What does this fold into?
Amino acid sequence: MKIVRRVGASPRERGSSTGQSCPDIFELSNGDFAVIGREATAELDPELPPDAARADYERIVVITRETLLRAKNDIPDA
It folds into this structure.
């Protein structure tokens, strides 16, 4: 599995010149997506709706709204 491309604007394009806040989205060679975000599993796990679940090896990460909105045009429809 390899990173094929960034999806959306780079952190620098979104104004992160210090590298302190760098949420990011990448498309992988197998078609999946990888996300860099703030780890928030402990905070948000109790908030999951009843029909949502998280395996022990999965984590909840948070990305900024701007990160996802700037990636919207780069996310394939299929």
In short: The two ends are 20 Å apart (CA to CA). The CA atoms of residues 31 and 74 lie 13 Å apart.
